[in-house]
Amino acid sequence: MTLHELSLNQASELLQKREVSSVELTQAILDRIEKVESKIHAYITLTRESAMEEARAADLRLQKGDRVTPLTGVPIAVKDIFCTRGVLTTCGSKILENFKPPYDATVVARLKEAGSVTLGKTNMDEFAMGSSNETSHYGIVHNPWDLEKIPGGSSGGSAAAVAAGQCFGALGTDTGGSIRQPASLCGIVGIKPTYGRVSRYGMIAFASSLDQGGPLGREVQDCALMLQVMVGHDPKDSTSVPMPVPNYLEHIQKGVKSLRVGVPQEYFVEGINPEVEKAVRKAIQTLKELGAEIIEVSLPHTSYATAVYYIIAPSEASSNLARYDGVEYGFRSSGAKNLLEMYRKTRSLGFGEEVKRRIMIGTYALSSGYYDAYYRKAQQVRTLIRRDFDRAFEKCDLIVTPTSPTPAFGIGEKASDPIQMYLSDIFTISCNLAGLPGISVPCGFNTQGLPLGLQLLGRPFDEERLFQVAHAFEQVTDWHKKRPEILSS
User: Fold this and answer.
1) Which of 115, 133, 168, 343 sits between 20 and 30 A of 187, alpha carbons compared?
2) Do 322 and 248 share a structural domain?
3) Is residue 417 part of a domain?
4) Is the whole model's pTM more than 0.70, yes or no?
5) What tens digit of pLDDT does each residue of 355-370 get?
6) Which domain holds residue 23?
7) CA dist., res. 161 & res. 259, Å (int)
């Protein structure tokens, strides 16, 4: 196994044993990026020089044993939605094509403090609005398992970079499935923490009541190591919850014996890809064989989740994106005759079609005479969805579902049909609406060799149990060990 094929945990162990240096690891990943990036297009910005400087600094820390963590010297990537001091941060949009923040997002700062090496900023759907990574102003990301397929979105660049060996772990964000869905389609692991568990300070807002940052890695333990550093109360974020943080690795080996695993039939609906359903049901049987008790639960308001999400998320996006007007920073259209024309031209030319579509939907839903009929009603149904989960968790310890209803689809296949594209997140949206933690782990491949994902949903702030169950499943399967052959060295 070459260095770029290692998991984050394996790379960390080699660094701790001084069997490899951070400089060697970082150079190996940069060489890998040089070889395959033209095929994948996972990055918007690469920070080669600063990455090597950070690697040399990490090696000094490792030699001295000074403030060493499991992430010290490990090269990772950052989704281009997180502010990085002095480094271009675009959110995949033309309107931020020249924005270099004067500060780091809290999670970026924490990863740097832990000694990780930042390779650069990964490609993404514009302002995180998309499920395929086709809406980025900086080009489409390709799935490493099949270059003609999408990698999922909006954290498609992060997922593709991990799967292709272009980093050992990556930061993503999840508003309606944007970590879990690309993790599933790229055959890796991704966790969306409980809302409020990870600081949103410096994470450019899409939908403020739904957004949450999280890690992607090749193995469950990779994500646990990254999340351990990312979590914790942040006074700079009013939605950050001041709760104790458990040691995620302490009980990760406990297994699933006697745990009650709920299976909601509403998630095995007509239209789900047969190969996806077969793989997920086989995974459920595996959990049963490991000692879990499988019980049926009901989430009766699941069918309303997509409609609720596509009122709430665009409404909050409409409000959040009002700040991009060409006045203080970012793209400004030239040739305007007055201020209002400058606003109109800047936003018309600076935003892509999907972002403009959602801004218009959200503005309409929030407008006078329609607020009660749409936004307020959607929030009321959101409460019902959350109560469904509360009742289900009275009977079970966690819930298992498919992550995505289909494997990765072809580039351009759904680009002209927004409704079909929105349905790609049908199994992940409810988790965000309810503010729950969710993780996706590989559970198989279809007959075309495309990865399939299993989703585990937990009680609020019970990420520890999700890691425990996901790790147990991972230990008796080999799906996470497979690498894309199309890019093998």
Assistant:
1) 115
2) no
3) no
4) yes
5) 999 999 999 999 988 9
6) 3-253+466-487
7) 34
